[in-house]
Each structure stands twice: as structure tokens, then as C-alpha cells.
Amino acid sequence: MSNEIKNKKTPVVLITGGSSPIGKAISLKLAARGMRLILQYHQSVSRTKGFIKELENSGCEIIGVRADLRKPVQSTGVIKKTVEKWGRLDLLVNNASVFKPTLSKDFLIKDWTETLNVNLISPAFLCSMAGNYLKKTKGCIINMVDIYGESPILNNFSAYCVSKSALISFTKYMAMELSPKVRVNGIAPGIISFPTSYSPARKRKLMERTLLKRPGSPEDIANTVIFLASDHYMTGQILRVDGGRFI
């Protein structure tokens, strides 16, 4: 098989939030399997370019696309660049996310709009636009949701919990909409990384609430992406990777 034919058949993956800790772990796992990558990023310009160079040096075919997902219309450019570059799409991983407090007593439209646009509207937009390309390759979509989307008990993060809950519902809806050719699933991470504001005592308290008594890692999420990206008999599912947090 010629390199040209081989390259045309090589799977193409689009990952949003590609330079975040989870995004990087996912990218490394997929690159190690020979997949071609499109990394969406926005503010982390130098960090993303450095990471892209690292993957290029390892032999991965990869490009970065800068887009502000707070403005969902910019998602159009991400899909356009993906198709223009390689003419196909096999996997969409909606990983980009905004995690900021929104106090109910101080309802700020700006914060709610930003959170919903990045965590829900842009992923929905990308799913919709990617659907026809994924049908051609019998590909799949993986949406990064959250355990707090299923159990909204995170104090002072109302917009975040609502956005992830809606994304869970949208994931199941799209599984029906794009069936039978495209599988759509979600991953609900638990304690993967702690906000820098968390004290050691608060971290210990959260870990004690898990059955495994420890945090997870970005690699745990990346391994779950690999599992869901394989051709399994699964769609419309949300997999919790939370160490038994809500048993």
C-alpha cells in the first residue's frame, strides 16, 4: 500500500481543549496509535504550540486550530480546517470546558453565557457539523461531561453543573440522532485534578469520599477515550471515571 493511500485511510481526531492536562493525555494516547490530530485551543497559545512541536517530533501528523469556543460560531472554522486538511473525520472529543463559580445570589449573565457556550453550545455545534463526516467513516463522538452533571451538588457552581447536565442529555439525544452509523458517548470524570485554591484538608476530604481513596489521573480519562473510540457495542452511555465517588 502506498503512503498516499495509507494516509487517506489514517483516522483523524479532533480534540477541543487539546493542551489541557486531560487533552494532552488523550492526544498522546491517540498519537501513539498512529492517528492524525487536530487540536483546538484558544488562550494557551505558547503551551499548545510547544506540545504540537513535541508530537510532531515523535512522528505524529498534527495541526492546531485556534478558536474561541465562547463564540460558538467559531466552531465552524474548526470543522472546516479539519476537512480541508485531511478530508475526513473519525473521532470528535469535546474536551474543552469552563470551570468557574457562579453564585446564585449574584446571577451574572456574562458568566452564565460563557460557561454555557463553552460547555454546551459549542460542543453541540461541533457534534451537529461533524455528524455527516463521521457517518462516512462510521466514527464516534466522545463528550467530556462531569459527575456533577449527574449529581449537581457542587456549591456555587450552578452554571457549570447545569451545562454538564445538559451536555449529558444532548449526548444521549445525538446518539439517537446519528444512529446507526455514529456512536455518541460521554465520560464523567471524578477527582482528576484539584483547583489550586483547594486546601490539603479539602483534597483529603474529597478523596475519602471515593471508594478507592485517591484521585484519578488524566491518563485514566485517556484510557477511557481509547476504550470508547474502539468499535464497541456502546452508544448513548455515560461512563463514570470517579473512583466510586457516587456509589
Quick summary of this structure?
With 247 residues, the protein is of the alpha/beta class. It is 48% helix and 14% strand. The protein has a single domain (3-241), classed as Rossmann fold (3-Layer(aba) Sandwich).
Could you outline the blueprint of secondary structure elements for this entry?
Elements: H1 3-9, E1 12-15, H2 21-32, E2 36-41, H3 45-57, E3 62-66, H4 75-86, E4 91-94, H5 109-137, E5 140-144, H6 147-150, H7 158-177, E6 183-189, H8 200-208, H9 218-229, E7 238-241
Parallel strand pairs: 1-2, 1-4, 2-3, 4-5, 5-6, 6-7
Helix pairs in contact: 2-9, 4-5, 5-7
Largest sheet: 7 strands, parallel
CATH superfamily: NAD(P)-binding Rossmann-like Domain
Q: What is the number of helices? A: 9
Give the class from helix and strand content and strand pairing: alpha/beta
Shape: globular
Q: Strand content of the residues, in percent?
A: 5-15%
